[in-house]
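Appendix B, Record 12. Input sequence as logged:
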Amino acid sequence: MQPRVTAILVARNGAAHLTRTLDALRAQTRPPERLVAIDLASGDGSAKLLADGGVAQTVAARAGSFGDGVAQALRHAASDPQPDEWLWLLAHDAAPEPEALRALLGAVEIAPSVAVAGPKVMRSDAPHVIASFGETLSGLGASVHLVEDEFDQAQHDVQSDVLGIAAQGMLVRRDVWEALGGFDPGLPDADAGLDFSVRARLAGHRVVVVPAAKVQRASAPEDFGRPPGSANRRRRKARRAQLHRRLVYSPALLLPLHWLSLAPLAVLRSLGHLLAKRPLAVPGEFASAFAAAFGDPGVFGARRRLRRVKQLPWSAVDSLRMPWSELRERRAVERQAREARLAAADPLDVAPIGFLPGGGLWTLLIGVVVGVVAAFPCSAASPRSAGDCCRWRAAPPSSGAPRSAAGCRTATAWPARRTRSRCSSRCSAPRRSGSRRCRWSSCSPRRRRSPR
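Logged structural output:
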């Protein structure tokens, strides 16, 4: 049976790229049977461009993420899934090349086990540079692009099976989409395609990339419908998505442990950012941790959806994860490339580093917090009186009195009631008592003299 394709075009403030994307859809050598376009409350005339672009079915909806747009478009389409129907998911700035859909369908037709296929995503400002071509997970669950910012010389065209693909440009069988519940609403900005692909893998389906299918993308998925964000904002969104997936993928018995570790891990990672001279990344760490701990009500719903469709153990996808050795090598190469760019940059083009933009304020605040935490045990061990403080601090090592966390002699080392000492009132300021200096060795209880 000939597959039937429904293309879903999601637009949000994308008037600058929408005309090019519509022209690319009309230029497909194998056009989709139906095109459903949805505008997410754009304020730049995107809805008018869709209406004037000859789109048969246009839906206006409230603002939301790319996944929200796909879900609302399918609800408004009001059509039952066909036996061999496929969904082609595109954003307003994702312009497919003429052979893209034909290549994607060719890959899924020869392999019935393939339920999700992804194109080679190229940069629109540099069509010879690969923006994304397959995704995977590290050992700790961080998302990693298999290919990113590389010249396309067909060096990666041998790849096929991957753990995940990008959401924009994805071709997915509709019955699989309905069974998996679509994209996770808890991942509105990052890792939506990766998470969906992981669930498809655990449900027993294959996920592949198709090198012959190319889609040119103008902006990062994290910036969908927004102005381009900074590196710190993208890092914060990626970390937020990683923590959400960690809570969703975790076994039930380990879920409380993962939840309790969010704040301590944020502190440790913040110290790592400071050592790596990235102080502006510290606020994002704490914001991501507290959002995952207290502002993520969708974790339990995502866990139920995963439990409902999961057919294979997590060990079935271990071979598709990135090994630690390869991850370290990639990070070393990225660090060298970053240092080379900084060395080749014109010093006049480098923005001056000040106290606020350079992260000095956050470094100062972190230092203050660390100092307060370090001094808390001594400040918490407050003496009950000045005389007790004198006894705590002046107790000799040979007295055998236990020490508190601050290093002082605790009050429990002294009996509740004590007999009066000759120089108990003079301990705070040693003075001569008779012919000897009042010392702790001479501070002994009075004894009644026996009559001679």
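Residues 4-228 form a domain with the Spore Coat Polysaccharide Biosynthesis Protein SpsA; Chain A fold (CATH 3.90.550.10).
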